[in-house]
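INSTRUCTION: Work out how this chain folds

Token vocabulary: learned, describes local backbone geometry

RECORD BEGINS BELOW THIS LINE
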Amino acid sequence: MTGYGAAFDWARRHVEAGRLPTAVLGVATAEGVVALDAFGATHGRITRVDDPYWLFSITKVLTGITAARAMERGFLTTETPLTDAIPGFGAGRDVDDVVRLRHLVSHTAGIPEPTLDPADGLRAALLVPDRDFAAGTASRYSTVAFDGIVELIRHAAGWEWDADISAWSAAIGATGFTLDPGVDPHTVVDAERLGLDMRGFASHRNPGAGMIGTAADLLALGSALLRVGQGALDGPVRPATLAMMRRPLTGDIPRLDPYPASAGQDWGFTLNLRTRAPGLIDRDVYGHAGWAGTEFWVHPAAGVAYVLLTNQADRPGVDADQLDNAVIAGI
């Protein structure tokens, strides 16, 4: 495992202690995968490095890239209002409380957040005539906002968000991203106990949480983004676009639960920018985590990206910052 033994020991240790049921851990540079291994089992199913997993909110990065590609082609700007695509949005908001693309991608739209499997569907939740706060005045984590993002993409560019993800990801060698649970992703072992109906969740085809993929898919993306950051022109977005995605959009506005200011992060264009995370050795990092323990992070200055796929939402005793530090120390 080259110099990353401590990171893989971390994953193995948590699986052997029962804190995680499974773990697929991989590390990549701009040149490709340098380390990959799998540990554990789900209800007797031995984990393999090429197994698919529910990605949950890592999906936001994929959708964000598709939205950024629409910007590159002149269909959108960060100032495009959601009402361009959904004229009925915003009932009950003040006339000057305009939700724009920049608010949707940065968790600052103030749309009340439903459960991951809202009974009436994502669109009904998006159109609830209420607000959490005025757009841009605070930040509270939002998945339903991504339904607004993909509607803007559909309205302006005529693209279906998942089809565009399939197109650009195939071009970088990531062919496994899908919304189809028929690929048999590892079961989220505590989903039912925590009240998430996975069948209902899958039916929503959620652009903020619904994708399934493998470690190889995400490592291919991490490698491509590292190359784009170095000026390569053959990635899913152009270098200037990636730089835009990495610009903080949240500044010093209040951070509301579940990500208070003490978590030390900013939100970029759908990217979690952990620029002030107190537990990290290296804070030049962007990416996303997912509800069931999935992790996807890119460290551009260090030249490394890593992926952790696992399948348990309630993870007492698991601190992913420890893993991040072990990866960085292995370089």
Notes: The mean pLDDT is 96.
